[in-house]
Design a protein that fits this description.
150 residues, alpha/beta, Arc Repressor Mutant, subunit A, Rubrerythrin, domain 2, 2 domains, three-stranded mixed β-sheet, three-stranded antiparallel β-sheet, 3 helices, 8 strands, 27% helix, RNA_pol_sigma_r3/r4-like, UPF0251, WH-like_DNA-bd_sf, UPF0251 protein EUAN_15540
């Protein structure tokens, strides 16, 4: 059995999540998907100027995991820029500091630490969970689009 993926903490969510080279129709451009945590890694390191240890701590991962995330992000952006690909930002294994969850069955409050915590209470296993920010899974800060209310 594979080891569960630990969620990466993300604080920044872009307003624009799709970039396309000028003058190219969307239907004729290949797309590169940049995960939300990859964008966060680049933001922390390249814009905020934090060192690797600070970035890793802020995202709640090891330094090696942070290095793997940022290496992947930079490679994807470099390929997109040199090959003329569109860049789509979305998906990944992330959570934010904005939301914590409460199990409606046992009352356990927690932050999602692993992928399965998005849908199941780590204390009792119930799938009756709610985001504490809105009482139901919230639109902006919760972990994955498939759990959002539109």
């Amino acid at each position: 059995m594979a080891r569960p993926v630990k969620m990466r903490r993300v604080e920044f969510f872009p307003d624009t999540s799709y970039f396309i080279p000028a003058g190219k129709p969307k239907c004729k451009v290949e797309e590169m998907n940049l995960k939300v945590e990859e964008l966060e890694a680049m933001r922390l390191k390249d814009i905020e100027g934090l060192n690797q240890e600070e970035c890793a701590e802020q995202m709640g991962v090891s330094r090696q995991t942070f290095q793997n995330i940022i290496d992947s992000a930079r490679k994807k952006v470099a390929i997109a820029l040199t090959e003329g690909f569109a860049i789509s930002i979305g998906g990944g294994n992330y959570t934010s500091k904005h939301c914590s969850f409460t199990c409606r069955d046992c009352g356990h409050e927690y932050e999602a630490g692993y992928e399965q915590d998005k849908v199941r209470c780590p204390a009792c296993g119930s799938e009756e969970i709610a985001c504490n920010k809105r009482g139901a899974v919230c639109k902006k800060h919760c972990i994955d689009k498939k759990f959002r209310i539109d």
